Amino acid sequence: MAEPTDAEVKRAMEVLVRKVDVDTITTKQFIVQLSDVMGGIDLKPRKKFIKASLTEIIDAMMHSRNEDAESVEEEVPKKKRGAGGLGAEKNISPELAEFLQTDKTRMARTEVVKGLWDYIRGKNIYTRICSSTAEMSQYLPALTDF
User: Fold this and answer.
1) Three-state SS string across 16-60, please?
2) Whole-model pTM above 0.70?
3) Does residue 83 have a pLDDT over 80?
4) What is the rounded CA–CA span in Å between residue 29 and residue 35?
5) Please, which pLDDT band fits residue 80 given cuts at 50, 70 and 90?
6) 42-68: string of b/e by CB count within 10 Å (b at 16+)?
7) Side-chain half-sphere CA neighbours of 92 within 13 A
């Protein structure tokens, strides 16, 4: 059997991609199925071409689906979500607010840590602090009393 052209391989891919679940199939599995569809020929030497073509085909399908969805219904605006995790603002104690020299009653953890580092660098105690709580309480007594 003669070696198929790139165009023939791509046409076979376009047909096969509509029959498989592209969210779960791996490229290797796709190549095996494509080989079966094309009469069992060895497609391993054309792996790079197949990967690139598969990406193009899936992108074209997604683009087509997006255009269809936009023409059928209006775009619904996504709900804006607040910050979560480290970016979530939490209540801070009056002592911490005073230490950080801020009027805020709520701050994100990242802001608190930044304020602590500003204090540490400003007092030039960075090199003196180890991971020891005793040394921390010596340099940051207002925060280590709890």
Assistant:
1) HHCCCCCCCCCHHHHHHHHHHHCCCCCCHHHHHHHHHHHHHHHHH
2) no
3) no
4) 10
5) low
6) ebeebeeebeebbeebeeeeeeeeeee
7) 24
Residue 133 structure tokens: 């709580």
The amino acid that residue 72 corresponds to is V
DSSP 5: P
* pLDDT reading at 27 higher than 70: yes
- Residue 92 φ then ψ, to 5°: -115, 155
Q: Are 27 and 46 a contacting pair, CB within 8 Å? A: no
- Would you state the structure tokens that stand for residue 130, as one six-digit string? 């180890």
CA distance 71 to 139: 64
Question: Rounded mean pLDDT of the chain?
Answer: 80
Q: How far apart are CA 69 and CA 88, in angstroms?
A: 34
- CA dihedral defined by 138, 144, 145, 146, rounded to 10 degrees? -170
Pairwise CA distance, residues 121 & 125, whole Å: 6
